[in-house]
Design a protein that fits this description.
Length: 50
Amino acid sequence: MAKKSVATLQTGSKRLTKAIKMVKSPKSGAYTFVEAIMDPENVNDFLAKK
């Protein structure tokens, strides 16, 4: 599995987390980065998905 990165962001009264993961393309075999900004509770679900 590729490396994972998580950063905590605070905007106003909301707490948000930016998660970045590397995903391997099935066609070319190259790695791409997928970024998402979400609630901290959803980070584990995002990183567990393929």
